[in-house]
Amino acid sequence: MARLSERVLKVRSKNAGPFWLTIDIFCGSAAAFAAVSAGLTTARVAALYATPEPLVKRFEIADLAVIKFSLPRPVVQGCRHDRDMHGAQWAVLLAEAELD
Amino acid sequence: MTTRVLVPSGVLGLGFERAALARGVAARPDIICIDGGSTDSGPFALGAGQSKYSRAATKSEWRALMQARMAAGVPLVIGTAGTCGTDATVDWMYQITAELAAELGQTLRVARLYSSQPAARVIAALAAGRVHALTPAPEISAPRLRALSNIVALAGAEQIQAALATGADIVIAGRTTDTATIAALPLARGDHAGAVWHGAKIAECGALCSTNPTSGVIVVDFDATGFTVEPMAEGACCTPHSVSAHMLYENADPFILHEPGGHLDVRGAHYRALDRRRVRVEGSNWVPGRYTVKLEGAALAGYQTTILALLRDPHYVAHARDWVARLQGYLAEQITARMGLAPADYSLEFRLIGVDGGLGALENRSGAPVEVGVLGIVAAATQDLAAEIGKLINPFVLHYPLTDSEELPTFAFPFSPATTDRGALYEFALNHVMELDDPMSAFRLTVSEVGDGTTK
Q1: Closest-CA residue in chain A for B46?
Q2: Does B366 contact chain A (CB < 8 Å)?
Q3: ipTM (interface pTM)
Q4: Whole-number Å distance between alpha carbons of B202 and B197
Q5: CB contact under 8 A, B138 and A76
Q6: What is the CA radius of gyration of chain B?
Q7: What are the helix (H) ranges across B105-189?
């Protein structure tokens, strides 16, 4: 068991337009990529962001050792309930998640 | 035919290295393209029809680009002028251009491409079944569309090509896709469409696709089979990794990019280092489709007033959430009793900075903060009403006790007055596309001459 951030180079998040959030995990090596690929389920990511799992898109890009998740923003950018206009702090939830 | 596009930076207003720009000009580009906006700062710019960047920063950078354009003798194009690309911000950018032309002694032909949409056009398209929701999309209707403060459509390459075809020295475009200004000329000259859109996506953030992201300036060469990208800053390099990784950036799907008239598919792309600084990309595919333009719209969602109190007393820091819950209940009663407002007439939210201010209900960690910032946010239909609620709650936010049996506390207010009127709150109201038979049918072009004292 280890936190994701301890196994990878970087986890970042950002808006992908006002309605989507995208999270990139830069694993840094093929070994870390394999570990994250096996140890991080889409269901886990969906739960962290309180999003229905079928709405979470998962991309595994072995050439870059990157795993990417995109999901509808937990709240639409800039609406009254939004706390993070650029969506960049949401990455921390995933960075701090424990890998299986 | 090879087309060389110079991109000075990811957005006008963010800065670029002047030496790198000079190297870019010396490389004899066919066109200079820069983006002027984005939705990334939120709905205010579009809602209000204003630039997010200062006029001073915009003018100083645009001066350097107008001088670069003159030196290169090629067109200069800005997309999404003034952050949001409304007609008002296109005219704001035009005014800056006219001032600079006079100051620099340049006489220029300027094309303005307008992207604002009258609500009636979108309502008619909606009724005709030609407006389609993306996921997730806010509900829309004719009354809702009429209530939006601004609607823009994102122009693609075709509209920029029409502007360039006027013989303009400078094109000031309203809302465009991030890639359209870069893609327009190489597509018009018959370069490989997949390569053009892919290279435009890689280049749209300037040197972000290189090892020196803040240097700004890059040059992209498009041709019949692919594109080559090279940063202009001393010591900056593009690598296959830095270039391919840029497809991840602010993209929900790293392989597919939708544009008016089709989509780009980069799953077959291969990235090759030509040398230490240049990367060659081939194999990207353009898939033609229905001609649609994306719509963006913003609606006024009330007015806000905020108040900030700091809790440093350990007793209150430890019980901040309980305190806020009790305070909130009390304030709701007071607002109803003294102002006669129903809960639906306003909103009042308290965020605990130091507890879960950034993540709210998603926060899954807790700690023992030294202090807690209590940010109260009032929203109501008018600024006067929001301000009045702010004044009503002010003394209680300052003094409200955790229990009835303790003396009145006094928290730290950093400001006098304690409340801040934030003005209008806007919200994004569209995530839709609109079908067009003719790409220009939802856009307007105006051509005029500036400079040499003809326009002030």
Answers
A1: A78
A2: no
A3: 0.96
A4: 9
A5: yes
A6: 26
A7: 119-127, 142-147, 157-164, 180-188
